[in-house]
Design brief:
Layout (H helix, E strand, L loop, with lengths): L1 H68 L12 H9 L7 E8 L4 E2 L4 E2 L5 E2 L1 H18 L8 H12 L15 H5 L26 H5 E2 L2 E2 L5 E2 L3 H4 L10 E2 L5 H7 L8 H9 L1 E2 L2 E2 L25 E2 L4 E10 L2 E13 L6 E10 L1
Parallel strand pairs: 2-7, 8-11
Antiparallel strand pairs: 1-12, 3-4, 5-6, 9-10, 12-13, 13-14
Helix pairs in contact: 3-8, 8-9
Length: 355
Amino acid sequence: MKRVNSRGIALLVTVAILSAVVAVSLEMNRRSRSAATRAVIEQHRTTLSAMASSGVQAAMAILIRDKAESEIDSIQEAWANPDIVRAVVAELAFETGELSVAIQDEQAKIQVNALVQGPGRSQYNESQRLMWDRFLRVMHARLLPDERSFEPDEVICALKDWMDSEDDDALSCPNGAESDYYKGLTPPYPCRNGPIPHIGELMRIRGITANLFYGLPNEKGISDYITAYRGEDAQSLPTGFAGKININTAEQPVLAAMLPSGKEELAQALVDYRVEMSESKYIHDLSLPTWYKQVAGLQGVVIDPRLITLSSDLFRIRASARMDHLSVTATALVHRENDPATGKCICRVLTWLVE
């Protein structure tokens, strides 16, 4: 019996050792395969990053060429035509993967920092305040039609209090908010009291809700129509915080905000007029700041000229590269300008984000 038991024990020990060896081998194999997979993924990500960077460079080349051909910017031009941009990107001829590039005019948006002006940024820019009032009413009708208590003035006051440099008890209106209000929240945080560096900061301001900012599943929020490029960069740019909007590229809600009160519904007519074609050619000239008067219903209407520009030099470029279920997107904010050293047009990168 002892011999049988010894043999049984030996067999059990052998099986246990083999099981351990197999388990270790399997774990080593898993780790080896995992390391190999990570290496492949990292290699693909490096390739995708290079592809996305090339896409941004191609877009900048399109913008530079456009500047040489025209002093105005509109959605009738090559940089705003997805088919032309796609054709240029196709010339890059990558062996693997896909690359898509989009160019967006940042001056087609409402510049939030232009709302205030003067010493200490303590005064309203009146033309901007009126436009914000119309803009918020338009967006409220789209996003918050059942919220009858919504008052655009309250949001505008809170925006001004957030940006002005006077952090005191002198609120812009009863529902404004300085640091005392924000420090009473959980968690507390201070008021900016200066230019807004990025639009995401608006979510920290009193009265701006998630629905208003981000929108609804089938409706864009205000974040798609406003800009707040970095204050330190903006102050060195010719555009600054003037807040002029390119009427040739602005989207329908922004055009509605630019129009005088009561004429907002004609914004879509402006959009349609800009893209009207005959025999594959645009038929309307957008080179004059009063071209909108040619649109039916707008003959006697005057858009505040302080809101209008026809040219743009600030653009957002988004290049997305994809390969084997992986993707990398590079987003660059660029300013088109003349290089003081060479006198040639360049695109200076202000911000660069890779996701």
